[in-house]
Write a structure and sequence with these properties.
Blueprint lengths: L1 E5 L5 E8 L4 E8 L9 E6 L2 E5 L9 E7 L2 E7 L6 E5 L17 E3 L2 E3 L9 E5 L3 E4 L9 E9 L7 E6 L9 E5 L6 E5 L2 E5 L8 E8 L3 E6 L2 E7 L9 E3 L10 E10 L5 H12 L1
Parallel strand pairs: 1-7
Antiparallel strand pairs: 2-3, 4-5, 6-7, 8-22, 9-12, 10-11, 11-22, 12-21, 13-18, 13-22, 14-15, 14-21, 15-16, 16-17, 18-19, 19-20
Amino acid sequence: MADEKILPDETLDVTYSISSDTSDLETVININKDNSPKDIQDIDNITDVKHFRWVPTKSDVDSTYEFEIGGEYLTVEVIDIFKNAIGHWSLTNGTATDETENNNDGNINGATFLQNGGPDNKGSFVFNGSSSIEMPNFSFPSSNFCLSFWLKDDSTTEDHRRWIGNSVDAFDNNLFIIRENNNNNNVEIGIGDKVSEIPTTFKGSWTHFVLNVDYGNIATLYINKQEIGSINISSPNFDSSMFIGGYYQDGEYVVGEFTEIVVYDKLLSQSDIDNLYNYRIN
């Protein structure tokens, strides 16, 4: 029995390796949550590798299905990893549109769209060292939340680079930032009037960052699904807008690319973090 999770957003190819009595079957399931009949079709045969297609509908989310393929059973759990997001900017369609129902769209200030950018070539925005994207109507929750984003940081200066944060100055009582510290590959997290550093290694390649903020307690950083470290935090009031790629008053601009930025009003589990990572890695 092979248990796998499918991420039904747009079209995603997920490969499953299943054993049978006669051969190894590689099953490719194309996922689209909008509309399609609920069945599996044998659409191609190439020697001993078979390709199948099954496309769930929106009503299939949070359901589990079992299929028999070549004498083996495949269990598929259909999930929507963005279901509980309070802000989601995929940055894959040339806009900074919020893809949740909250409509907190971003204003693009000099960043440019790269159609084949991102870890999976689905799109990203390029930041040139003086550009940013502002979400003027979005504030981080003053409660538990989680921030997830993909970044390719190509900056080479010795300055701080504010990846994502709110529109307040450093060490303000209501500060939120996550940034690189002076080109040393360490991540600085600022929450309230305290900025703390976590040693990391990530430079020059696409990297997935997740920050779980247990409000008033600790903030935990994950890089490419792995827990890296935690810091103690206070309980500030986040009431200002969100910026990506820098902040127009303090600067700290990024040279690099961003894609798939998501904010949840809850802490994510390890399996949630794994799913977010796998979604853009295919």
